[in-house]
Amino acid sequence: MTTITITSFGTGHPDAPWSANPVVVDTKPLRNPPQDPAVRARMTQMTGLDRDVAFYVMTTPGAERLVEDALLAVYDRLVTAPDTDVDVHVSCVGGRHRSVAVSEELASRLRALDAVTADVQVVHRHIDQPILPRLSDRLRETHGRYWVVSHAETGINTRFSEKAVAQMTRQAPDTLADFFTAQFLQIHRAAHTDLPAPLAYSPQEAATMADTLRQLRALFGVPSRHADLADQLAAHADRAAAAGETWTWTKEVSV
């Protein structure tokens, strides 16, 4: 029997799901309970599995269209390749509210369709993770600039503090500093530029950079914020390399 696996996750975590050709659903345009002062205190203690959170998310303007588009995309996969399993990746920032609620709604509608005989499974990858800092809080820590690291296959756009990346590269141990600088020369050159041209790395370059980041992470030794950042960037580069797609860095300025 064909299986439809719907995975909710947060792009603010490094271990996003990966598959060769997923249906990608981005729920970030929907209302986010942790960013709404009227419901934040109550709903941060809940998840998208709770009825109040699900109602809050699904009554956001655009939510219905988002689910309908995802439903059609999945059904199209089933029609064009009836014997092939379908992976659906549903993202928000933290992986606890919007992506969970939309995943559950999509699964419910798929199971209700007589034309869909596939086994529908739902996995919530980050539902038990702590609430992430609000985006506005994270942006203030960047002194106004942050890198947006992305690749098209997963639709993931992950923000990293420009200041944190610069500090990590400057504090690389001497034994690796020159090699690390050479690999990330473009990023070093753009460190003090508000809006440089996008930086694009081939899958092969992304694989090399992932290996370099892992070496750097090992030399940092004990867990630290620089080690965590190296881990996250390495995981992101791995996904780009595995997908055979360009790994892109752009910079944005907060307002």
TrEMBL record:
For this protein, the record's Pfam families field holds: DUF7739, PapZ_C
The signal peptide annotation in the UniProt record is: none
Instruction: Name a GO molecular-function annotation.
Output: ATP binding
Work out whether the entry's keyword set contains DNA repair. no
Show where the DUF7739 domain sits.
155-250
Q: In this protein, which residues make up the domain named RapZ C-terminal?
A: 3-127
Keyword Transmembrane helix applies: no
The organism's place on the tree of life at top rank: Bacteria
Keywords, A to Z, come to: Plasmid
InterPro entries in UniProt: DUF7739, RapZ-like, RapZ_C
PANTHER family for the chain: RNASE ADAPTER PROTEIN RAPZ
Protein's recorded name: Uncharacterized protein
According to its UniProt entry, this protein's organism is Streptomyces sp. FQ1
> Lineage from the top down?
Bacteria, Bacillati, Actinomycetota, Actinomycetes, Kitasatosporales
